[in-house]
Specification:
This is Amidohydrolase. One of its GO terms (cellular component) is cytoplasm. With 536 residues, this protein is of the alpha/beta class. It has 14 helices and eleven strands. The protein is globular.
């Protein structure tokens, strides 16, 4: 009888002893939840207090309109603001004259905020005007919306810095730019040169038309950007063509062969080319000609396989034309893979922040722009997208060199609603909203999410542990990072210099002056929204 009671007495004693411990743990957990909620509330208030700075930064960078590798005004403007706010700045990183890294704080965790800064050729466009109206005909412009991401990140970083200083929260905030993203020409060099060594998590931001994030491998490809240059011998095209060896023939034969080969490549591949140098004039046999390829695929193995196929074809074309060929890698992008635990944390914050409240004028403008590009007139997004499972079979699409970083450190991308649905992308119509209240509201919404997610990472050590476990055990289960750059490859920083030299003097006349004008629309004399082109 006594032996039968013993287990029950022991259990009662254990429960009596454990109850205060369990209660204390529950109280501690509740206190932590309450503290994090309070920090996030202050982060949101800090972002809202800097909404004017976000607008000024967005509009200023929009007015600079700088192409890949030539983002000098943009980088100087951003780093000056960061230095004035106590960040230390390292410039010219990874061989990129417009590359930089800005840091504040000490110790870990190190949270890196990044966004792209370059623009699109021939995309000059007046903002707030729903029809084609270049500010300068033929000039570049922000026809994707890269003018907005750094404004978002800087505002989030300053709100975080204020909280970390006041509450003595350890950690380091790091900001960096996506240089030459439109050429996939910057981030892989930053990875190769160790810029992200010691970083615990990357929160990347990219303009979109909803407030959303993803995890796993999203729709899209990795790629190699490579230029093949053929060298031959010039001659008079009419008097003695037999004495020439046409480099352009080499280019054309390579393109013919590649187009024939497409039928026998996986349907997931995407590849395209331009001929930047086809010779000088028709009556001179071209001694030099070049062709520039983007070679895209879904995974590292197939990217490498197609790249080697293109190399073989180029060498065969050179033999056929008695020319020689060299190649130069301009940029690379790994297939992207985003971190599940961080994406889930970010999505919880997305749900708290929600989409901006759009006005009737903003919806009307969006519909007018959609009408201009002859697409569905549905206005701006009014419902959040869900955080969905990755596709079982990833689909082909565009590339982004954030992929290289995503294989180096746990990473997510946050898309924020500063642009309009149903637009072509890489197009002047995508510039129409990017210095209007639509862009400004989207930036503030995205900045809140980034600041709140950074607080999660700073306050919850278990989140970083989970992120690193996913990165090591799930992401790298089936494939490992395979860099496409060699040690000899260098950033092609000369690209676009001549175009910017042509247009920059005139573009400077349109730089935004926030000391004189409340917004860039005010400076341009545009009363938002302008929905139709005047008949006169």
């Amino acid at each position: 009888m006594k032996h039968g009671l013993l287990p029950s007495l022991v259990l009662t004693a254990l429960l009596t002893t454990a109850a205060p411990v369990l209660a204390q743990t529950a109280q501690q957990d509740a206190a932590l939840v309450e503290r994090i909620a309070e920090l996030k509330k202050r982060a949101v208030e800090g972002v809202e207090a800097r909404a004017k700075l976000a607008q000024e930064m967005n509009d200023s960078i929009f007015s600079f309109g700088e192409l890949a590798f030539q983002e000098f005004e943009t980088s100087k403007y951003i780093t000056d603001i960061l230095e004035k706010n106590g960040f230390s700045v390292q410039r010219n990183v990874a061989g990129l004259p417009t590359g930089w890294v800005a840091k504040w704080g000490s110790g870990g965790p190190v949270i890196a905020l990044g966004s792209d800064i370059d623009c699109i050729p021939k995309a000059s466009q007046k903002p707030g005007v729903a029809y084609r109206e270049p500010m300068i005909e033929g000039a570049p412009g922000h026809g994707e919306g890269h003018n907005s991401g750094q404004a978002l990140n800087v505002v989030a970083a300053l709100a975080l810095k204020e909280i970390m200083e006041r509450d003595k929260i350890p950690g380091t905030i790091m900001l960096w730019p996506g240089v030459a993203e439109e050429l996939l020409g910057g981030k892989a060099y930053m990875v190769r040169d160790g810029v992200f060594n010691g970083v615990d998590a990357v929160l990347f931001t990219h303009v979109g038309n909803n407030l959303e994030t993803t995890w796993g491998q999203p729709r899209g490809t990795g790629m190699v950007s490579v230029e093949y240059t053929f060298s031959g011998e010039s001659a008079h095209s009419a008097a003695a063509p037999w004495r020439g060896r046409s480099a352009l023939d080499g280019v054309e034969l390579m393109n013919i062969a590649w187009n024939m080969r497409r039928e026998h490549l996986r349907p997931e591949q995407r590849s395209h080319y331009v001929i930047p140098d086809g010779g000088d004039q028709p009556n001179v046999v071209p001694s030099v000609a070049s062709v520039w390829y983007f070679i895209r695929e879904l995974d590292f193995g197939n990217i490498r396989k197609n790249f080697e196929t293109a190399n073989t074809i180029s060498e065969a074309a050179a033999k056929m034309t008695d020319t020689t060929v060299t190649r130069k890698v301009i940029g690379t992008a790994a297939p992207r893979h985003f971190n599940k635990p961080i994406a889930e944390a970010a999505y919880a914050n997305i749900q708290q922040v929600g989409l901006p409240k759009w006005t009737e004028d903003e919806h009307a403008f969006a519909k007018a722009v959609q009408r201009t590009v002859k697409d569905k007139e549905e206005g701006l997004a009014t419902e959040l997208k869900k955080l969905e499972q990755p596709l079982e079979k990833p689909e082909s699409g565009g590339s982004d060199d954030i992929g290289d970083i995503s294989w180096t450190v746990p990473t997510i991308t946050l898309n924020y609603p500063s642009n309009i649905p149903n637009l072509p992308g890489h197009h002047w119509s995508n510039a129409m909203s990017m210095a209007t209240p639509i862009a400004h509201k989207g930036i503030v919404a995205g900045s809140k999410v980034i600041a709140m997610t950074a607080i999660d990472l700073l306050s919850k050590p278990e989140l970083l542990v989970q992120a690193k476990q996913y990165f090591a055990n799930e992401q790298q289960k089936n494939q490992k990072y395979t860099p496409m750059l060699s040690a000899e490859d260098k950033p092609q920083i000369q690209i676009n210099a001549d175009i910017m030299a042509t247009y920059r003097p005139e573009m400077k006349k349109y730089y935004y002056d926030p000391s004189k004008y409340a917004t860039y629309l005010d400076q341009l004399g545009i009363k938002f929204p302008v929905l139709e082109k005047p008949k006169n």
